[in-house]
């Protein structure tokens, strides 16, 4: 990474009124972009990540707490490029797949670490109808539209505001203009990443529109709790608080039904190794080439009920998730094929990362029985997902 400037915001011991800013460069930081509390226990470090092929400036923000957790986020796609958490020995290692340069993120890749919008997951044939008007989206996963299209939110530069104190927050904003990628309405989007001192990363999504539209935002990080990306995620133990899945057809579009997970490879209601049933003879597994499905969440206390838990015994790392979304897409990295470079050499091989994308169901705009994803003018889209990391010895 080409680091042009770096500022660390911390505690001022000399002045109750002044904000302590330690700068490793004589270049001044934009005070309207980054602010810090003098009692900050979770810090933010800003650096230049480079410029896009279009000449747009991209910055990186490091959020760091006192317990060994660090999260690096770039303004290109709002991507999490690095997420370090301790193992049971207290050693912090990166547990998300990513690249080490902007040029690689600009190339086609499977959405590593990215914010996804306007619509996470697939929309059948890239079409939907609102108030008797049909909209045609960009097709980028033939014959369907996937994750907002080829120039979705993962491929744009977001504006950023950051501050630190008892928590560190990075608020990203983007205005998606009317008919961008075929979606109606000027959609103002805010995504706020918040790191706490108890190793919790909150992701808050907010949006408003001036025209009736559809919205389904999510986060697309690939996790490998081992911290070793030469290893698969098949030895990770997964628990999903869900009795049903959204089955798909041969093009990975929902059939419209909801299937019980009981007595199928999709039953993760009790902890189970991901690798246990992933190669079982099952039509849905064959269609997804492994797990690539949306689970219907049992979520009685939305935002408080743990809806997903991942445990890696060798490292002792645990990741627990809460959300107010009705579904979660579990993807087992089936299309990672050894062609994308790892930062320290080698390539990301088959099933070396897993995704847990909180969301509304795929193709909801075309499925009347699914929870709606329609957003009207005057309404506020607001949803939050939390990732909490710990260790089990």
Automatic annotation (TrEMBL):
<comment type="similarity">
    <text>Belongs to the aldose epimerase family.</text>
</comment>
<dbReference type="GO" id="GO:0006006">
    <property type="term" value="P:glucose metabolic process"/>
</dbReference>
<comment type="subunit">
    <text>Monomer.</text>
</comment>
<feature type="binding site">
    <location>
        <begin position="121"/>
        <end position="122"/>
    </location>
    <ligand>
        <name>beta-D-galactose</name>
    </ligand>
</feature>
<dbReference type="GO" id="GO:0030246">
    <property type="term" value="F:carbohydrate binding"/>
</dbReference>
<dbReference type="InterPro" id="IPR011013">
    <property type="entry name" value="Gal_mutarotase_sf_dom"/>
</dbReference>
<feature type="active site" description="Proton donor">
    <location>
        <position position="220"/>
    </location>
</feature>
<feature type="signal peptide">
    <location>
        <begin position="1"/>
        <end position="17"/>
    </location>
</feature>
<dbReference type="GO" id="GO:0005737">
    <property type="term" value="C:cytoplasm"/>
</dbReference>
<dbReference type="GO" id="GO:0004034">
    <property type="term" value="F:aldose 1-epimerase activity"/>
</dbReference>
<keyword id="KW-0597">Phosphoprotein</keyword>
<keyword id="KW-0119">Carbohydrate metabolism</keyword>
<keyword id="KW-0106">Calcium</keyword>
<keyword id="KW-0963">Cytoplasm</keyword>
<keyword id="KW-0413">Isomerase</keyword>
<keyword id="KW-0732">Signal</keyword>
<feature type="binding site">
    <location>
        <begin position="220"/>
        <end position="222"/>
    </location>
    <ligand>
        <name>beta-D-galactose</name>
    </ligand>
</feature>
<feature type="active site" description="Proton acceptor">
    <location>
        <position position="357"/>
    </location>
</feature>
<comment type="pathway">
    <text>Carbohydrate metabolism; hexose metabolism.</text>
</comment>
<dbReference type="InterPro" id="IPR008183">
    <property type="entry name" value="Aldose_1/G6P_1-epimerase"/>
</dbReference>
<protein>
    <recommendedName>
        <fullName>Aldose 1-epimerase</fullName>
        <ecNumber>5.1.3.3</ecNumber>
    </recommendedName>
</protein>
<dbReference type="InterPro" id="IPR047215">
    <property type="entry name" value="Galactose_mutarotase-like"/>
</dbReference>
<dbReference type="GO" id="GO:0033499">
    <property type="term" value="P:galactose catabolic process via UDP-galactose, Leloir pathway"/>
</dbReference>
<dbReference type="InterPro" id="IPR014718">
    <property type="entry name" value="GH-type_carb-bd"/>
</dbReference>
<dbReference type="InterPro" id="IPR015443">
    <property type="entry name" value="Aldose_1-epimerase"/>
</dbReference>
<dbReference type="Pfam" id="PF01263">
    <property type="entry name" value="Aldose_epim"/>
</dbReference>
<feature type="binding site">
    <location>
        <position position="292"/>
    </location>
    <ligand>
        <name>beta-D-galactose</name>
    </ligand>
</feature>
């Amino acid at each position: 990474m080409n680091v042009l400037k770096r500022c660390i915001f911390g505690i001022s011991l000399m002045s109750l009124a002044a904000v302590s800013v330690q700068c490793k460069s004589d270049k001044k930081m934009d005070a309207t972009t980054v602010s810090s509390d003098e009692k900050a226990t979770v810090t933010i470090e800003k650096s230049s990540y480079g410029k896009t092929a279009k000449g747009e400036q991209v910055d990186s923000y490091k959020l760091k707490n006192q317990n060994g957790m660090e999260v690096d986020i770039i303004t290109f796609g709002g991507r999490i490029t690095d997420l370090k958490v301790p193992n049971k020995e207290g050693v912090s290692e990166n547990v998300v797949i990513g690249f080490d340069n902007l040029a690689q993120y600009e190339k086609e890749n499977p959405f590593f670490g990215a914010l996804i919008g306007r619509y996470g997951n697939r929309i059948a044939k890239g079409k939907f109808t609102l108030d008797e008007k049909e909209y045609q989206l960009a097709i980028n996963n033939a014959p369907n539209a996937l994750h907002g299209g080829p120039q979705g939110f993962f491929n744009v530069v977001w504006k950023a505001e950051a501050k630190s104190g008892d928590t560190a927050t990075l608020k990203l904003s983007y205005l998606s203009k009317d008919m961008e990628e075929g979606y109606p309405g000027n959609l103002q989007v805010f995504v706020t990443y918040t790191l706490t001192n108890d190793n919790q990363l909150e992701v808050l999504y907010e949006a408003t529109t001036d025209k009736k539209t559809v919205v389904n935002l999510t986060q697309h990080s690939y996790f490998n709790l081992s911290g070793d990306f030469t290893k698969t995620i098949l030895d990770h133990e997964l628990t999903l608080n869900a009795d049903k899945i959204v089955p798909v057809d041969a093009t990975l579009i929902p059939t419209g039904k909801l299937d019980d997970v009981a007595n199928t490879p999709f039953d993760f209601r009790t902890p189970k190794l991901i690798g246990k049933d992933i190669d079982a003879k099952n039509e849905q597994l064959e269609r997804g080439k492994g797990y690539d499905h949306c689970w219907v969440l049992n979520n009685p206390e939305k935002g408080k009920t743990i809806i997903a838990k991942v445990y890696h015994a060798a490292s002792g790392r645990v990741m627990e998730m809460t959300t107010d979304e009705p579904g979660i897409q579990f993807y087992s990295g089936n299309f990672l094929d050894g062609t994308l470079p790892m930062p320290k050499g080698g390539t990301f091989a088959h099933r070396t990362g897993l995704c847990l994308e909180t969301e509304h169901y795929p193709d909801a705009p075309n499925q009347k029985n699914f929870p709606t994803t329609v957003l009207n003018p005057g309404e506020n889209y607001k949803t939050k997902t939390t990732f909490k990391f710990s260790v089990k010895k």
